[in-house]
Design brief:
alpha+beta; single chain; 23 helices; disordered N terminus; 17% strand; 7-stranded mixed sheet
């Protein structure tokens, strides 16, 4: 199973992030120790990585030093907890981590972690102590908010001064948002207490995974170790399904809270659960004992709720509108297979006015290249697949008589390489899509072998810096074939292929769960012989660059594989876009020069870039108030623009009749309370409220997310305009159309 690897942020299962739970401050955490099987997993992983990796690297003293540095940075990326003396304390271990791994004795990395935990507790205790005083906001000083590239603090006094400024900034944000000193102290004390609680929930498996990733990523950026639970979550992410009740969960204070209910799921069909309900206990089967889950980690709660299809789970729930002393109710639900449709391909239709005619552009948004490998292997004819979903949507768009199709791959971090190849095949007849070179130099060509096109009209691909791996394969192939216009910003630049290797297959014990390696085994190349490695895919028409290329993307890694070139594959271009791109570029530039929304976006991007470069924020109240007033003024101008009648040139979203009908049938009166909450959110969402995550009410958080989701997408609108321009040019110039398209247009 080959993977053009996805982003591996640890999923807190199909269940939202896991902030924190209150824990007694004076209770010192127990020192964590490695489990015996973790030593075995580390040793097995080292043998595989040093022999079978694309960039096979011996585990020796030189590698040990790299692991040492990366491990400390993994634990304390912003350099706010350790001081240089802590690193010096373990200086003798710099060249001994290889021995620890091969000898299956991991006491050393766990000792480092336990010192980190001690420093963490000390720093947070100091931050809470600072809350007893009141900062002086008349001083002319500033706070460096990004310290990843800073040196380690030289002394305890230096790191305390960093924390003094951090607390001062947290305080000032809340003060500018209108909170008084008492409310600020309460908010920040609870915030810092939650930091402690979250830290104390880390267990031996977490520490082992952090350490093993420090090793794996010291070889190459996209090699990772996945512990048993992370491995399960990765599998769920790939197949976009799981067996459970269909509720997205989140931790708020000590409660596990229902954040979202999946339509058509057991939770949704029952009508007994609602957003905001708090899960107090979980029981298995019809009569199993209820286990109190108050204060548990979110992934532990999720593990209790998930289970085999058609089995029963019982939830003891405190209703959303009940007080802390309210009466819980017990609800029994039968687990079913849940499809994570939010991550599936989706389509919309945008209409653009082009002179006296309207152009219809079909937009397909694809968040990831997913596939249910297990279902496909078993021969399940209905297995989940990104290609199958996109093919179905293209068929629907044909019936909708769209003039052009835009494939939106922004922030699509990759997924299945097989899906990338097969999805490209929907837009080309037959031929090579991508080349792979293994560690021994052997080059294999992955080709689309099915004749015919699912869509033979013009096509565009929208990418950004978050488009990586499989996304880059598709964009590069369509660009090399001259099959479509690539629009956006340069992509991530990940040109490597990973496979998942289960370490249990090497274990002697039958029931061992040693985790998996996501290991780089090949590098992929474009069919033109180039690679997306480091450089990414360069768009034909560039939109404003939002991402910080210095800190995000393949080129930001210190050990990324180099850019190289191999022999091109044999392929026949389907079209040639070089004649039409300059015409589209000219129209694009003329249009955005008059587009106020676009210019606002450019202003915002320049403002953010300026802040990144300065990497300092004033801690002087007068200066910050002035800055805040300027930001509020900017926001008011934008709101006035949004409140005005939309420009006649703006693309118009064509409503889906089925979706509109479903919404009308399921619509319910909002109620006075909900309306009041929504109004309160609208009134405060414009400026910084100084709060973090679960410090806001759930209603406010959900309303803000909804507003962000519904906000005007300036870049998408511009991409749609570009494709509408392309349609106009192709319909008025048959010579141009015959060069751009793989067929002679009859429309």
């Amino acid at each position: 199973m080959l993977l053009a690897a996805m982003s591996l942020a640890l999923m807190s299962a199909y269940a939202g992030a896991a902030p924190a739970v209150a824990t007694p401050v004076d209770k010192a955490p127990e020192a964590l120790k490695p489990a015996a099987q973790q030593g075995q997993a580390a040793s097995l992983a080292s043998r595989v990585l040093s022999r079978a990796h694309y960039k096979a690297t011996p585990l020796d003293d030189a590698m040990s030093e790299k692991i040492f540095d990366r491990y400390f940075k993994s634990l304390d990326a912003e350099k706010l907890f350790f001081v240089q003396a802590d690193l010096d304390q373990f200086a003798g271990a710099r060249s001994k981590l290889d021995d620890a791994i091969m000898g299956e004795k991991l006491d050393l990395p766990f000792s480092i972690y336990n010192v980190y935990q001690q420093r963490f507790n000390e720093r947070i205790a100091y931050a809470r102590e600072l809350l007893k005083t009141r900062p002086d906001f008349t001083l002319d000083e500033s706070y460096q908010y990004d310290r990843e590239k800073a040196d380690w603090a030289k002394s305890d006094a230096e790191v305390k001064d960093l924390w003094r400024k951090r607390v001062k900034n947290d305080w000032l944000r809340l003060k500018l948002a209108g909170k008084d000193d008492k409310a600020i102290r309460e908010t920040l004390d609870k915030r810092y207490e939650n930091y402690l609680s979250r830290s104390r929930k880390l267990n031996s498996e977490d520490v082992f995974q952090i350490f093993m990733n420090a090793y794996a990523m010291s070889i190459e950026p996209h090699t990772n170790y996945l512990g048993p639970r992370a491995s399960d979550n990765f599998d769920i992410q790939m197949r976009l399904s799981l067996e459970g009740i269909g509720a997205v969960l989140q931790t708020r204070d000590e409660y596990t809270v229902i954040r979202e209910i999946v339509a058509g799921s057991p939770a949704g069909m029952s009508g007994k659960l609602k957003v905001g309900d708090r899960i107090m206990a979980v029981g298995q089967n019809e009569s199993g004992p209820l286990t109190d889950v108050l204060g548990w980690r979110i992934d532990d709660v999720v593990q209790q709720i998930r289970g085999a299809k058609d089995s029963t789970v019982r939830l003891q729930v405190l209703p959303a509108d009940a007080g802390p002393d309210g009466k819980p109710v017990t609800i029994a639900l039968v687990r079913k297979k849940i499809s994570m449709e939010e991550q599936s391909a989706k389509k919309t239709i945008m209409e653009v006015r082009d002179g006296g005619v309207k152009r219809r552009i079909g937009v397909i948004s694809l968040p990831t290249f997913y596939m249910d490998f297990e279902a496909r292997r078993k021969g399940d004819k209905d297995y989940k697949s990104a290609t199958r979903d996109v093919a179905r949507l293209l068929g629907e768009l044909k019936k909708d008589k769209v003039d052009n199709v835009l494939l939106d791959l922004r922030n699509n971090g990759g997924g299945s390489l097989t899906e990338a190849v097969e999805l490209t095949g929907l837009f080309i007849d037959r031929g090579p899509v991508v080349q792979q070179r293994s560690a021994d130099g052997k080059v294999e060509v992955e080709s689309d072998t099915l004749p015919g096109l699912a869509w033979d009209g013009p096509v565009g691909v929208l990418i950004n810096r978050g488009s990586a791996s499989a996304s880059e394969i598709v964009a590069a192939a369509l660009q090399d074939y001259g099959r479509g216009i690539i629009i956006g910003e340069p992509s991530f630049g990940k040109g490597t292929v990973q496979t998942l290797l289960n370490l249990d297959r090497f274990a002697q014990a039958d029931k061992a769960r040693l985790g998996e390696l996501k290991m780089t085994i090949a590098q992929f190349f474009r069919i033109n012989g180039g690679t997306t490695q480091l450089r990414g895919v360069t768009p034909d028409i560039k939109l404003p660059t939002i991402a910080d290329a210095e800190n995000f993307g393949e080129s930001s890694y210190d050990n990324a594989l180099p850019y190289t070139v191999i022999k091109p594959a044999v392929y026949i271009p389907a079209g040639e876009v070089k004649d039409i791109v300059p015409l589209l570029q000219k129209r694009y530039e003329a249009r955005v020069a008059k587009d106020k929304d676009f210019q606002y976006l450019v202003d915002d991007i320049n403002y953010v870039k300026k802040q990144r470069k300065e990497n300092l924020i004033s801690l002087n109240e007068v200066a910050r108030r002035k800055e805040r007033e300027q930001q509020e003024q900017r926001a008011k101008l934008r709101e006035a623009r949004l409140a005005a009648a939309p420009s006649p040139d703006d693309p118009i979203l064509v409503p889906d009749p089925k979706e509109a009908l479903n919404k009308a049938v399921s619509a319910k009166p909002a109620g006075a309370k909900a309306a009041k909450q929504a109004a309160a959110v609208k009134g405060t969402s414009r400026t910084d409220d100084g709060l973090q995550g679960d410090e806001r009410s759930l209603a406010a958080e959900l309303e803000a997310e909804k507003a962000a989701k519904n906000a005007k997408d300036v870049l998408l609108n511009e991409a749609v305009h570009i494709l509408a321009d392309e349609v106009g040019l192709l319909k008025t110039d048959t010579r141009l159309a015959s060069r751009v398209l793989p067929y002679t247009p009859d429309r």
